[in-house]
Design brief:
TIM Barrel, 6-stranded parallel β-sheet
Length: 198
């Protein structure tokens, strides 16, 4: 086993886990993978998506790893990443990931401002979910301020009651507001019912 001297690490950097290290010595959080299983699963997902004519974004919420995402893109054909939070999206944007979906609503003014800067950082498309018409103006204002464009999905509540609009009229109203807003592009709808997928 390779010894790790934690005193030699710079502050703010992750303490590495190395093969053979005693489980009690592993500093958390730590992502530990079976690389063969990971690669097999990535390829299986990619093959399924390709066989069904789907473009898929890998979800970065679980692994939070640029290296794993790059494997998902290289081996599995993922076109980009899906994140839950702006801070997660920033990590992937810094590493040049070109297609980023924040599959959540962003309402905090500071986070909206950070979100609107991501297209410049990544050099690609950033999409965010909206379920409130007031959020459209905030996103448009921030995108104009930074000279960027954001894609927008209108989120639909499909029974979970967590987020999303509940009527067709609300979907149409928000979609039209996005269409008419500067620096925003309506990219479609999103619905997520986790209980049906697990």
């Amino acid at each position: 086993m390779k010894d790790v001297n934690f005193d030699d690490l710079d502050v703010g950097f992750d303490a590495p886990a190395v093969p053979g290290m005693d489980e009690a010595d592993i500093q958390t959080p730590c992502l530990i993978l079976d690389l063969d299983a990971l690669e097999r699963n990535i390829k299986k997902m990619g093959d399924y998506a390709k066989a069904h004519g789907m473009r898929h974004r890998a979800h970065g919420k679980m692994h939070k790893s640029v290296d794993v995402l790059k494997l998902q893109m290289e081996l599995g054909g993922a076109v980009g990443v899906c994140c839950q939070k702006v801070s997660e999206a920033e990590v992937f944007a810094r590493e040049g990931i070109k297609e980023i979906l924040v599959s959540n609503q962003v309402r905090d003014p500071a986070k909206i401002d950070r979100l609107a800067q991501l297209p410049k950082l990544s050099g690609g498309e950033v999409i965010v979910c909206v379920d409130d018409i007031d959020n459209v103006a905030d996103l448009s204002e921030a995108a104009q301020k930074h000279g960027t464009d954001l894609g927008v999905f209108v989120e639909i509540d499909c029974g979970a009651g967590r987020c999303g609009v509940t009527t067709t009229d609300a979907v149409v109203e928000i979609a039209k507001a996005v269409r008419d807003a500067d620096n925003l592009t309506f990219r479609g709808i999103q619905a997520y019912q986790g209980a049906m997928q697990h």
